[in-house]
Fold this sequence. Notes:
Elements: E1 17-18, H1 28-34, H2 44-61, E2 67-72, H3 75-86, E3 92-97, H4 100-111, E4 115-120, H5 129-136, E5 143-147, E6 149-150, E7 155-156, H6 159-168, E8 172-176, H7 188-191, E9 195-197, E10 210-215, H8 217-224, H9 237-244, H10 257-273, H11 275-295, E11 311-315, H12 322-333, E12 335-336, E13 338-339, E14 348-352, H13 360-376, H14 385-396
Parallel strand pairs: 1-12, 3-4, 3-5, 5-8, 8-9
Antiparallel strand pairs: 2-10, 6-7, 9-10, 11-14, 13-14
Amino acid sequence: xxxxxxxxxxxxxxxxxxxxxxxxxxxxxxxxxxxxxxxxxxxxxxxxxxxxxxxxxxxxxxxxxxxxxxxxxxxxxxxxxxxxxxxxxxxxxxxxxxxxxxxxxxxxxxxxxxxxxxxxxxxxxxxxxxxxxxxxxxxxxxxxxxxxxxxxxxxxxxxxxxxxxxxxxxxxxxxxxxxxxxxxxxxxxxxxxxxxxxxxxxxxxxxxxxxxxxxxxxxxxxxxxxxxxxxxxxxxxxxxxxxxxxxxxxxxxxxxxxxxxxxxxxxxxxxxxxxxxxxxxxxxxxxxxxxxxxxxxxxxxxxxxxxxxxxxxxxxxxxxxxxxxxxxxxxxxxxxxxxxxxxxxxxxxxxxxxxxxxxxxxxxxxxxxxxxxxxxxxxxxxxxxxxxxxxxxxxxx
Length: 397
C-alpha cells in the first residue's frame, strides 16, 4: 500500500492561551528541556535526572516521603496507581463525591473489588465534614479519599479536616491534587495526607504525560502487607520502587525520558520562583479575574471561601450560547476555556489560571475578550471589568 508523505504537513496548531481546565501553557525552558537528546532508560545521566525529580517533587509536595515519584501516565494513571496499590477485594473504602473526578475514584475502587461507600455532596461546594464522619462510623474503612481541588466544579475541599476524620477511624487518607499541586499550598506532612497524586499539565505547567505521586511510610507498609499482588504490574509501587531507588536499580519499564527532562525543568522553575510567591501569584490573579467577572454582572458557581484560585467556574448568563462563546474566544482571540462536565454541562465555564498561564496579562485579555464576545451575542453585560481587575492589582502593589 502506497502513501504520499507530502499529504502530511508540519504540526503547527498556532498559538493558544490555555485557560481551560488543563493543560496550561508551557514555559519555553520546559519545551527546550524536552527536546534534549534522548538517552537510555537506565543511562547514568537519566538516573541522575530521576533522582533530581524525586528531590524536587518532595519540595513541591512539602514532604519527606521517600516514595515520591512521577508515574508514567497522566493524572488518571496517578489516581489508579494510588487506589490499586491500597485497595484489595472486600476492603471498606469511603469516597467523598461532589464532582466528576471523585465519582471516577468510586468507579476505579469498585473495579478493584472494594466495598465503596460514596458520601454525596453538592457539586460546587466543599464537602460536609459531618456527613463524612457519619459515613465512616462503625465501618473501619481502610481508605478515605477526596479530591482536594475538584476540576469539574472549582470547589476546594477541607482536606486537613477530612484527613483527621480518616485517621480517627484508623484509615489512610488519599487526596487528588491534580489541580492544586504547584498552585496552592500542598503540604502533605503538615496536612496529614498519607497518599497523594497529581498531574504535570496543570499548575506545574509541563506537557501532559506524567503523574506525580507520594506515599508515606504508613501507606507503603500497607502495600507490603497486601494479601495479593497489586492488580496492575505497571503501577505496582513495590516494583516501581526498585526502579526509582538509588540502590540496585532494577528494570521495570521504559521510562519516558524526555518527559522527565521536561518535568525536572518545570519543577526547577517552581523552585526558582519559590512556593509562597507562586501561591500568592495564583491567588492574586484569581481575585482579579473574579472581580472582573462580577463587575460584568456575571456570577461564580462556588461561594467565596470555597473557591479554587487555580480553576474558576463562571455561571453561563441567560442568553449566552455555551459552545458559541467558547468557539468565538478560541477562533477570534486564541483563548481556550472549558465547558461544564456532568450535571454542570451547559451551565458553567471553567477558566483555568494555572502555572505559566496565571498572569495579569492573561486575566486582562480574557476579561476583555469575554466582554466583547458576550456583547456580540446580545448578552447585557455591565462595563468596568478591566477597572475592577486593575483595582485588585493596585491594592497588591
